[in-house]
Design brief:
Length: 194
């Protein structure tokens, strides 16, 4: 079983994450930020990963540190669970429709962190979640998971729908990208490592 547990504690946050890549989409999430909990639960559901996630942070300041550090911790757990990346599919691209939103997500689990997105929001918050932290979460996840992550927002007005399409799209892409290839032929790279 490809699973891991990570704890990261700083003066701003204390976050624990259990992740099972071969799970059945069981989620138990408590970040102190309602909308963010909803997004991580959607990520678990669409990835099929079991995810137990607990974060306490300096929410009296704002949600920035908690959301950004959550990306770091989830990435560390993902890397640890994935191990040497032997025989994984590696790539995936998916277009997620969600009402008015249409969002392309593309990942390459290549060993190099890179993040790009054209997302822009017309509002500052969705519930208690600051929309500026969307990029912070995905950037910290991509860099620390050492993968390429691209989002392209084709259309969308409702911030809730756009953000949810991003989290669901990432879940779907990672679900497919971590699958073991049927030929089980080792690392999918001419370099022999990812």
């Amino acid at each position: 079983m490809r699973k891991s547990e990570v704890n990261r504690q700083t003066k701003e946050t204390n976050i624990t994450c259990y992740l099972n890549l071969d799970g059945s989409a069981k989620a138990n999430i408590n970040s102190g930020i309602g909308f963010f909990d909803h997004m991580l639960t959607a990520f678990s559901k669409h990835s099929g990963f079991d995810l137990e996630f607990k974060a306490t942070g300096d929410l009296v300041v704002d949600t920035h540190h908690t959301v950004e550090d959550s990306g770091i911790v989830l990435a560390d757990a993902f890397n640890k669970a994935l191990n040497d990346k032997n025989s994984i599919e590696r790539y995936q691209t998916f277009i997620m429709p969600m009402d008015d939103a249409l969002v392309l997500t593309s990942v390459d689990i290549c060993g190099r962190g890179y993040y790009a997105s054209n997302v822009e929001f017309k509002c500052d918050r969705v519930g208690d979640f600051e929309t500026q932290t969307v990029d912070e979460f995905f950037r910290s996840f991509a860099i620390n998971a050492k993968l390429n992550l691209h989002f392209y927002i084709f259309r969308g007005e409702n911030a809730h729908h756009i953000i949810e399409a991003m989290f669901k799209g990432l879940g779907k892409c990672l679900k497919d990208a971590v699958k073991i290839r049927s030929d089980n032929s080792g690392i999918l790279s001419t370099k022999g490592v990812l």
